[in-house]
Specification:
The complex is a heterodimer of chains A (225) and B (257). Chain A is of the alpha+beta class. Chain A has one domain: Glutamine Phosphoribosylpyrophosphate, subunit 1, domain 1 (4-Layer Sandwich). Chain A has 5 helices and 12 strands. Chain B is 9% helix and 24% strand. Chain B has 2 helices and 12 strands, in the order E-E-H-E-E-E-E-E-E-E-E-E-H-E. In chain B, strands 1-2-3-4-5-6-7-8-9-10-12-11 form a 12-stranded mixed β-sheet, covered by helices on one side. In chain B, strand 2, helix 1 and strand 3 form a beta-alpha-beta unit. The longest helix of chain B has 14 residues. The interface between A and B is medium-sized, with 15 and 17 residues.
């Protein structure tokens, strides 16, 4: 399993509430990822604060006062480890390059092969997590000049497995699902925000959700601010 | 204000979230409509309360907020309205009730349905009516991937579009798609029948277009009428059934698998 939550604000008036909204979303996704949680908050001119720790999502949010964080964009993850150990280094979000955050629900089967290829290119890893391989791959493509959409398309060609990915930069918000789409995703759009979560119930605490345009994405969706 | 008693908790009244209201939601039968406020109840309390209701009762579940497993495993002939968006498996395993969802639903709406009806007034996520043995699931919006997967005799009517792999390994029953069908329609189909009013992106392995008979036209008309669809011309649907070439493993064809 694993749970993903993301929020990019279109209404600056919501920025003081970003942390509280994200914490609510992550808590609602606690059952999908009870072993650890992580949050990345974008604020100011694109600075990113990443908090991640082993523990139940509600407890992690409480301990690090996620609800008090302000910002214009946030990414969260609740983890149920299937491929590698439960440590802080294995928690999401992964930040493979400055400003880039990657969270993943799913599993990659050829991550060891892709990891060896990236290591031959001189890329260092923090963990043996399969999701980190995807994150490093995307960052390598971005460094080589791809835009985010190209980088994610290349990743889909190189990596074999199941995924719903949420990838953010200071100005972009991208959701990518594999063609079989067995890992869930739902998106809600209002004038105030674009929100993404693994399950709709994680979105029900957002302001104006009853009037939001809600849909299930397939393939690749990107938004640029 | 009367209260109903939670099943399995003799003598324990449910909280005030469970109310009988005879004034505001009359079904026309004169019978009272029971209201359950999901916000104040656990899913187990809701489903236990539903299970205890006598046949003919109407009940509205308020404020569902995408809750999973609402109105599952019911075998009484009651009328349930979920007034909002539901999560996974709404109405699953049902064997009798008529359920309406005033919103959209998550995965597995009506999974393993045995009898009764489920109507969703919005779109549904993946695996609608998965493994349904009987009953009718009506989707007034679109259905996502793998609708009707492993259908075992139930009926699924989708007003809008259906996603990839609709009817995957469906063994018996009927799927009607009022809009377009995604890729790999009817992949590894057994004896279920699929009717599509719109375009088909592609057929899956062992699925084929079949001749539309007068019986098919009648069946599509009756199902459209029952589902309340008025945008389907029964004469113009495409019928998809199994080519029956993958039923058995044949050793001397092994190289072609």
């Amino acid at each position: 399993m694993c749970g993903i939550a993301g929020l990019t604000l279109l209404d600056a008036g919501l920025e003081p509430e970003l942390g509280a909204l994200l914490a609510g979303m992550l808590t609602a996704l606690g059952e999908r990822g009870p072993d650890s949680a992580g949050v990345a908050v974008y604020h100011g001119d694109g600075q990113v604060d990443v908090t991640k720790e082993v523990g139940r999502p509600a407890e992690v949010c409480e301990r690090f006062a996620i609800a008090t964080k302000r910002g214009y964009q946030g990414v969260g993850h609740t983890r149920m480890a299937t491929e590698s150990a439960v440590t802080r280094a294995h928690c999401h979000p992964f930040t493979p390059a400055e400003g880039v955050c990657v969270v993943h629900n799913g599993s990659f089967s050829n991550h060891a092969t892709v990891r060896r290829r990236l290591e031959r290119d001189g890329i260092a890893f923090d963990s043996d997590n399969d999701s980190e391989v995807a994150a490093r791959f995307i960052a390598q493509r971005l460094a080589q000049g791809d835009d985010l959409r190209q980088a994610l398309t290349e990743m889909a060609g190189a990596m074999d497995g199941f995924y719903t990915l949420l990838v953010t930069t200071p100005t972009e918000f991208a959701v990518h699902r594999d063609p079989v789409a067995c890992k869930p995703a739902v998106i809600a759009q209002t004038d105030g925000y674009i929100a993404m979560a693994s399950e709709y119930r994680a979105l029900t605490g957002l302001p104006g959700i009853k009037d939001a345009k809600v849909f299930e994405p397939t393939g690749l969706h990107t938004w640029t601010r | 204000m009367d209260t109903v008693t939670a099943a399995g908790r003799p003598g324990t009244d449910l909280p005030e979230a469970v109310t009988q209201d005879t004034g505001t939601q009359d079904t026309g039968t004169g019978a009272p409509v029971i209201t359950l406020d999901a916000a104040g109840l656990t899913t187990r309390a809701i489903n236990s309360a539903l299970r205890e209701l006598p046949d003919g009762t109407s009940v509205v579940i308020m404020d569902p907020r995408g809750r999973h497993n609402l109105a599952v495993g019911l075998s009484n002939r009651i009328d349930v309205t979920v007034d909002g968006n539901a999560g996974y498996y709404a109405g699953g395993l049902g064997d009798g009730p008529d359920i309406t969802v005033n919103g959209f639903t998550g995965w597995g709406i009506g999974e393993n349905l045995m009898s009764g009806t489920i109507r969703v007034r919005g779109s549904v996520s993946q695996s609608a009516a998965a493994s349904a043995h009987g009953g009718l699931v009506v989707v007034e919006g679109d259905a996502s991937l793998r609708a009707g997967i492993s259908l075992k005799g139930g009926t699924l009517a989708i007003a809008g579009d259906a996603g990839q792999l609709t009817g995957f390994m469906a063994q018996a029953g009927t799927i009607l798609i009022g809009g377009d069908a995604g890729e790999a329609l009817g992949d590894s189909l057994y004896e279920a029948t699929i009717y599509v009013a719109g375009a088909i992106a592609s057929l899956g392995a062992d699925a084929r277009r079949s001749e539309l008979t007068e019986d098919d036209v009648t069946a599509v008309k009756q199902l459209s009428d029952r589902a309340g669809f008025d945008h389907i011309d029964p004469q113009l649907v495409t019928k998809v059934t199994s080519a029956r070439e993958l039923y058995h493993f044949t050793a001397h064809h092994a190289s072609s698998y």
